[in-house]
TrEMBL record:
<keyword id="KW-0378">Hydrolase</keyword>
<protein>
    <submittedName>
        <fullName>ADP-ribosylglycohydrolase</fullName>
    </submittedName>
</protein>
<keyword id="KW-0460">Magnesium</keyword>
<keyword id="KW-0479">Metal-binding</keyword>
<dbReference type="Pfam" id="PF03747">
    <property type="entry name" value="ADP_ribosyl_GH"/>
</dbReference>
<feature type="binding site">
    <location>
        <position position="286"/>
    </location>
    <ligand>
        <name>Mg(2+)</name>
    </ligand>
</feature>
<feature type="binding site">
    <location>
        <position position="288"/>
    </location>
    <ligand>
        <name>Mg(2+)</name>
    </ligand>
</feature>
<feature type="binding site">
    <location>
        <position position="49"/>
    </location>
    <ligand>
        <name>Mg(2+)</name>
    </ligand>
</feature>
<dbReference type="GO" id="GO:0016787">
    <property type="term" value="F:hydrolase activity"/>
</dbReference>
<feature type="binding site">
    <location>
        <position position="51"/>
    </location>
    <ligand>
        <name>Mg(2+)</name>
    </ligand>
</feature>
<dbReference type="GO" id="GO:0046872">
    <property type="term" value="F:metal ion binding"/>
</dbReference>
<feature type="binding site">
    <location>
        <position position="289"/>
    </location>
    <ligand>
        <name>Mg(2+)</name>
    </ligand>
</feature>
<feature type="binding site">
    <location>
        <position position="50"/>
    </location>
    <ligand>
        <name>Mg(2+)</name>
    </ligand>
</feature>
<dbReference type="InterPro" id="IPR036705">
    <property type="entry name" value="Ribosyl_crysJ1_sf"/>
</dbReference>
<dbReference type="InterPro" id="IPR005502">
    <property type="entry name" value="Ribosyl_crysJ1"/>
</dbReference>
<dbReference type="InterPro" id="IPR050792">
    <property type="entry name" value="ADP-ribosylglycohydrolase"/>
</dbReference>
Length: 329
């Protein structure tokens, strides 16, 4: 079913559909596209944003690294992020946290002194999907790499936990978990991992004023994510899924809300993937990031057949997306 390709394309399609709506009000979006939101790719190629560009950077770094360990992954991720930042195609309204942190990485300093320690912007979460798709990783490698790729730019514990949960959502859906079981599985992960600080990956990142232990540091991240997942459950139980999804589960500018609102728009209709993308893009908040994560979930579960075939040649970076997907399908 080519789940890796389906997930990466879903990510790019959602990103592209959400690109024009990211900075628009919900009423403006609905007036233009109808209540279902945008459902047609526009342009030849249909452009994506930094979300897809950085997801490709992470995915290609994972393939290039000789092993999935902090020592092997760090220099490769650093170089891929620097190449992205310097690229003339880095003109898609990228997040300030990424630009600042990567600017710091450029002078060669250790990543822990480059990262934006207090940022939990969704910029690390929107690019983590490849960590969920790469086959053959141990649980420690998948969780560690998900948090580590976040930590290079976003040092807040909620950014780390949300990235791990996003990677696991993709991984589990691809492995056949029923969407109806996804929220409970993620909620359980929050409880299990609450006191697990991955020191071999994160080093002394936890050292902050007034934080007394690594467990205290990371527990805050898991707790904020757990609260966001509870809001998704409430929103789904509410029954009426019309209107701006950001009013129910958050605008998505921060990591746990991007995860929550993407999960919400996906779980409303997991068997209608194009409707999922439109629902994510028709949102008042960070529409491209919400729709890209929702698309990654739908594609991981349904595979390449989830998407209209003619989009495959229309989407920007189709060659790189297919190359990465083919390696992991
Ligand atoms: Mg973007």
């Amino acid at each position: 079913m080519r789940a890796a390709t389906g997930s990466l394309l879903g990510l790019a399609y959602g990103d592209s559909l959400g690109k024009p709506t990211e900075f628009q009000e919900y009423a403006t979006i609905v007036a233009r596209y109808g209540p279902g939101g945008p459902r047609q790719l526009v342009g030849e190629p249909a452009l994506v944003t930094d979300d897809t560009q950085m997801a490709l950077a992470v995915g290609e770094a994972l393939r290039e690294a000789t092993s999935i360990t902090p020592g092997s992954l760090e220099p490769v991720l650093r170089r891929r992020f620097l190449e992205w930042a310097a690229s003339p195609e880095n003109d898609r309204a990228p997040g300030m946290t990424c630009l600042r942190a990567i600017g710091n990485l450029a002078d060669g300093r250790p990543w822990a002194r480059a990262t934006q320690a207090d940022s939990k912007g969704c910029g690390a979460n929107m690019r983590v999907t490849p960590v969920g798709l790469m086959p053959g990783l141990t649980d420690d490698q998948r969780a560690g790499a998900a948090q580590f790729q976040a930590a290079l730019t976003h040092g807040h514990p909620t950014g780390l936990a949300a990235s791990e949960l996003t990677a696991y959502a993709v991984f589990w859906l691809r492995g056949g978990l029923a969407p109806s079981g996804l929220l409970a599985a993620l909620r359980e992960r929050c409880a299990e991992q609450r006191k697990v600080y991955r020191g071999d990956w994160l080093g002394e990142l936890w050292h902050r004023p007034a934080v007394t232990s690594p467990e205290e540091f990371i527990a805050r991240g898991w707790d904020e994510c757990a609260a966001a997942l509870d809001r998704v459950a409430e929103a789904l139980a509410g029954g009426d899924h019309t209107g701006d999804p950001c009013l129910r589960t958050g605008a998505g500018w921060i990591a746990e809300e991007a995860l929550a609102t993407a999960l919400y728009v996906y779980l409303v209709s997991p068997d209608e993937p194009v409707a999922v993308l439109g629902r994510g893009a028709a949102s008042s908040g960070d529409s491209d990031s919400i729709a890209c994560l929702a698309g990654a979930f739908a594609g991981a579960a349904l595979g390449l057949a989830a998407w209209p075939a003619d989009w495959q040649t229309q989407i920007e970076y189709a060659d790189r997306l297919f190359r990465l997907g083919r390696a992991w399908d």
